[in-house]
Amino acid sequence: MSSARQKAKLHILEPRVYQYTYGPNRPLLRVGSGDSVTASTIDAHGFDRYGNPLTKSQKQKSETTTFQESNPLVGPIWIEEAQPGDLLQIVIKKILLDREYAFSSLLPHFGSLTGESEGKDLLFNEPLPEAIYHWELDLAAQTGTLRLRKSKLEKIQIPLHPFIGSIGVAPRFGRMETTLVPGEYGGNMDCVETKEGTILYLPIWVRGAYLSFGDIHAAQGDGEICGVALETTAQVTLKLEVIKNRTAEWPRIENQTHIMVAGSARPLMDAVRIAHLELTKWLVADYGFDKWEALQVLSQVGTMRVGNVVDPNYTIVAKFPKKYLP
């Protein structure tokens, strides 16, 4: 056993303040490379596992502006060895749902089926009606049930597939980004692949990395087209390790069957290009492919998933099957 592993610790983080931005905010915890962190999250609207809302003292504050109070995050976490030009490896060890319900909704001026925004009516039709949907979660069976009021079916039941909707580090170039935005730092990717057992690799742009996470989804379809998944709470455990002198331009993801890249941009085709270009670079740099041969093979065996088409940036996840790796 290496000395680094012998010194690894498990930290229990109990946040006093939740963040509404990704950036070099005051760290709530300092850890070393190889350490693990366990924390309980709150849902996208700021309610904990018992249904209690955040108090004013628990919300990130600014003397100069107000924040959009969506997707409150645990963190940031400072990783001692993290430097720009390194890669942060995040093993998602556990996502334990701890509330027996989730909510979803339809919102006016929000989602992929509207071209409207607050104060700017871009279409002649009326905005979407506001509606709240209460999903019952069976944590033992890992199913979610929605009781339907106006449909032929009385209810519908779906399997749960919990994942972290928002997870990221401080962005490059000194930027601060809201918790609604995905980018090169990770962020609100709403990517169903960031689930238990997956490894997420984030490029480090700022010393200490400043990792934050939250916005747990019990389930979600590709694209999150209405803008809201099955929003709930969970206890999350992450193992954090700094890979020195190895970087990437965009978030990389690995599970038992695929290597993947998440690209976020607008328009959607730019997200498609970013994800596949970065995945091609990964195949060349780490697996010995020729660039053009990598693109050819990726074109024939690759798949992609739409993370979201509702956030300020859209997210595409490009996937390459491991069985074709050397």
Structural account:
The chain is built from three helices and 22 strands. It folds into three domains: 3-96 and 163-246, Jelly Rolls (Sandwich), CATH 2.60.120; 102-159, no CATH class; 254-324, Endonuclease I-creI (Roll). It is 11% helix and 36% strand. The model has no long low-confidence stretch (mean pLDDT 91). The strands form four sheets. It has a nine-stranded mixed sheet with strand order 1-4-18-6-15-19-20-22-21. Strands 3, 5, 11, 13, 14, 16 and 17 form a seven-stranded mixed sheet that branches. A four-stranded antiparallel sheet has the order 7-8-9-10, with no helix packed on it. The chain is globular. The chain is mainly beta and 326 residues long. Strand 21 (303-308) and strand 22 form a beta hairpin. The longest helix is centred in the C-terminal third of the chain and has 20 residues, at 268-287. The chain has helices at residues 3-7, 268-287, 291-301, and strands at 10-13, 21-22, 29-31, 36-40, 73-79, 87-97, 101-106, 131-138, 143-147, 155-159, 163-168, 177-178, 182-183, 186-187, 199-203, 211-217, 231-232, 234-243, 252-254, 258-265, 303-308, 314-321.
CA distance, first residue to last residue: 28 Å
Helix-residue proportion: 10-25%
Instruction: Note the beta-strand portion.
Output: 35-45%
Main β sheet profile: 9 strands, mixed
Classified by CATH, the class of the largest domain is Mainly Beta
Total strands = 22
Coarse shape = globular
Oligomeric form of this entry? single chain
Written as H for each helix and E for each strand, in order along the chain, the element string is HEEEEEEEEEEEEEEEEEEEEHHEE
CATH topology of the largest domain: Jelly Rolls
- Give the CATH H-level superfamily of the largest domain: Acetamidase/Formamidase-like domains
CA radius of gyration: 20 Å
